[in-house]
Amino acid sequence: MDSEQLRDYGHRMVDFIADYYKTIENFPVLSQVQPGYLHNLLPESAPDHPETLEHVLDDVKTKIFPGLTHWQSPSFFAYYPSNSSVAGFLGEMLSAGLGIVGFSWITSPAATELEMIVLDWLAKLLNLPEQFLSKGNGGGVIQGSASEAVLVVLIAARDKVLRSVGKKELEKLVVYSSDQTHSAFQKACQIAGIHPENCRVLKTDSSTDYALRPEFLQEAVSKDLEAGLIPFFLCANVGTTSSTAVDPLAALGKITKSNEMWLHVDAAYAGSACICPEYRQYIDGVENADSFNMNAHKWFLTNFDCSLLWVKDKDSLTQALSTNPEFLKNKASQANLVVDYKDWQVPLGRRFRSLKLWMVLRLYGAKTLKNYIRNHIKLAKDFEQLVSQDPNFEVITPRIFSLVCFRIVPTENDEKKCNNRNRQLLEAVNSSGKLFMSHTALSGKIVLRCAIGAPLTEEKHVKEAWKVIQEKASYLIHK
Ligand code: PLP
What we know:
The chain is of the alpha/beta class. The chain has a domain at 100-351: 3-Layer(aba) Sandwich (Aspartate Aminotransferase, domain 2), CATH 3.40.640. It has 14 helices and 11 strands. It has helices at 3-23, 53-64, 86-98, 109-125, 146-165, 183-192, 214-226, 249-258, 296-299, 314-321, 331-334, 354-389, 415-431, 459-477, and strands at residues 139-143, 173-178, 199-202, 230-237, 262-266, 291-295, 307-311, 393-395, 403-408, 438-442, 445-451. It has a 7-stranded mixed sheet, with helices on both faces. Strand 2, helix 6 and strand 3 (199-202) form a beta-alpha-beta unit. It is globular. Pyridoxal-5'-phosphate (PLP) is lined by residues 79-80, 145-147, 182, 184, 239-241, 266, 268-269, 295, 307. GO terms for molecular function: carboxy-lyase activity; pyridoxal phosphate binding. Its cofactor is pyridoxal 5'-phosphate.
């Protein structure tokens, strides 16, 4: 590492990125390239000799940029946002610059301890129960993704129950979720060896705005108990991916508690909103949860990746995931004086990710972060109003946070035709390059999702997006 080269190149790279943000609105939000486009633009093999930074950055502009979908564009409304910010970027830069790998406390004590402190800070902002704080048997950890978070707690819960009933009973373990739960949970079950026939996917519908009904859970658990099976895990949602449905945690928690099941709360997107007192109600009942997850990299100004997981019983995690090879042994770990995050996750190596969250919390402060969330929710409310005022459209589920689910209304009661029309609308809107939205299906209806949450989005971008949607829709409606 040549410090002077780093200074020179680093400054130039920051300039390059700052210019990108200045001009981000000039690019089509959704990349318009065809599959394989890059193969024709780059050489067949790596260069033998060093090239200049100018040359590489030129290629980034001319060859890489066309293949980017601009997640940080103010007109990015697809999926859920993946925030970037100056503070988050600086934290990432610092983490890359320091280049440490903090798998055990001893490999960089600050990395472990800062992570514990920052997750305690955030747990307090979310008003999570005390048992999730690091001072007792609980604590928080940064995972790479909500998928990893649900996987590690599922494995922890699986091993906990198997320790009491015996390993041979794996085939009898049953998990529960709603049909709105993210596919990450299904993947976790596949990895954790849960028998596919023992994954209960409980039906939801519009009568509860796609939230899980506690009576359905109770019924399923009772049936499984009668059949001699072992219910052990519920993955509940606060803010589902399709429509931000919120499962009733308090009622579900009573059922999981009385059946000694692990309750995991997936609040990957909506968790961020719960730092605002007026939205905290959506995680009421988290008191009975065993684990809680939110992605700071979605809607909390923290650059990808930064998925926050809290558990009440860290021993369950470490009993399931720890290894102790000779080459990693050290005094602090052997004396059980420290947290070794390698035992809370799947990989060994881990980046110093808490730096960026710490930067975000310090450079913005909780007040700014709350207002940031509130502003997006207000923009979503405005958008929802625009949609409801247009007789050609309907809002499909009531908006709770900053996602609006809507569609062109069916004509002649023809749902199939209506679905096609909405697919066509999405295609037309996205290929315009002016904005990017995604879709889902709810009760067989193809629904467009406008998820507001990119840091640069302002009122004018939302209004402009609506104009484009109306314009594209009018061609389809009058066709
Ligand atoms: N859970 C919810 C509710 C989500 O919306 C998502 C992704 O959008 C996930 C889980 C998966 O997230 P990740 O990519 O962090 O695994």
